[in-house]
Write a structure and sequence with these properties.
Strand order of the largest sheet: 3-2-1-4-5-6-7
Order of helices and strands: EHEHEHEHEHHEHE
Number of domains: 1
CATH class: Alpha Beta
Number of strands: 7
Low-confidence stretches: none
Strand content: 5-15%
CATH superfamily: NAD(P)-binding Rossmann-like Domain
Largest sheet: 7 strands, parallel
Number of helices: 7
Shape: globular
Distance between the termini: 27 Å
Length: about 260
């Protein structure tokens, strides 16, 4: 799988699971022009130890940043900090990976409370909305550095919203029995609409916006029965990101590049 990404890249939810693996593979497989801003809620906490160790392996290539997607001030502070560091270069790629699910799977109707619905929506939808809004000036700056006729791409300026197959309304009848997950499913369906809206809004700036399903992955959220490792998922996603262009903006794809119906 070919990874041809670079420039300034922000990854949220990067202290574990898919986010951590994305940071690791980006650090390993990209050139010296790449700088990764790895964001998580508690950079100094025990759950970020693996990320701190990874950053130490790639001095000067990974900057760990505090960012809580449920806290607007935290997002604003992180955007300002990134802006100071990247200067005129702009932000080439924002990967909105941070997400939660509540309650524990199968998360049936009877088990799901209002607070679960609201907290999951705030993290999985409002967070990516605010991130795009606050990082937009930096994404525009990167997009403007390309020639007017250049295609959209993740090397130029892009937002990747990490979605899921179970956000698909067309596929719901096939997937509902596996995991009901009311809050998670509905939040990711809303994230898909956010992706479509941003794709329309940002195309005038030559900023690509695409949603990607990482597969069913063996993580804390995915569980031990999931067929994919974080390595397989991350490499697939990065390969897909490397191939994206204008035609893919506003789409929902899987980690192998296949289109998923809404």
């Amino acid at each position: 799988m070919s990874v041809t990404l670079g420039g300034n890249i922000v990854v949220t939810g990067s202290n574990r699971g898919i986010g951590l693996e994305l940071v690791k593979q980006l650090a390993e497989k990209t050139g010296e022009d790449t700088h990764i801003y790895a964001c998580c809620r508690e950079p100094e906490g025990p759950r970020a130890e693996a990320l701190r160790n990874l950053s130490a392996q790639y001095p000067g290539k990974i900057t760990i940043m505090k960012l809580d997607t449920m806290d607007e001030d935290s997002i604003s502070t992180a955007a300002q900090a990134v802006s100071k560091q990247i200067g005129a270069g702009g932000l080439n790629l924002l990967i909105n990976n941070a997400a939660i699910t509540k309650p524990a799977s199968p998360a049936s109707l009877s088990a799901t409370q209002k607070k679960d619905m609201m907290e999951v929506y705030e993290t999985n939808v409002v967070g990516p909305f605010l991130l795009a809004k606050m990082f937009l000036p930096l994404l525009q700056r990167a997009a403007e550095r390309g020639s007017p006729g250049d295609k959209m791409s993740c090397r130029r300026s892009a937002i990747i919203n990490v979605s899921t197959l179970i956000s698909s309304m067309e596929k719901c009848a096939e997937t509902f029995h596996i995991a009901q997950m009311y809050a998670y499913r509905t939040s990711k369906a809303a994230l898909n609409m956010l992706t479509c809206c941003q794709a329309e809004d940002f195309k005038a700036h030559n900023i690509l916006v695409t949603a990607i399903h990482p597969g069913w992955v063996r993580t804390d959220m995915g569980g031990e029965q999931a067929p994919l490792t974080t390595l397989e998922s991350a490499l697939g996603m990065l390969s897909v990101m490397s191939s994206l262009s204008n035609k893919d903006s506003g789409m929902l794809l899987d980690w192998e590049g296949n289109t998923i119906p809404w």
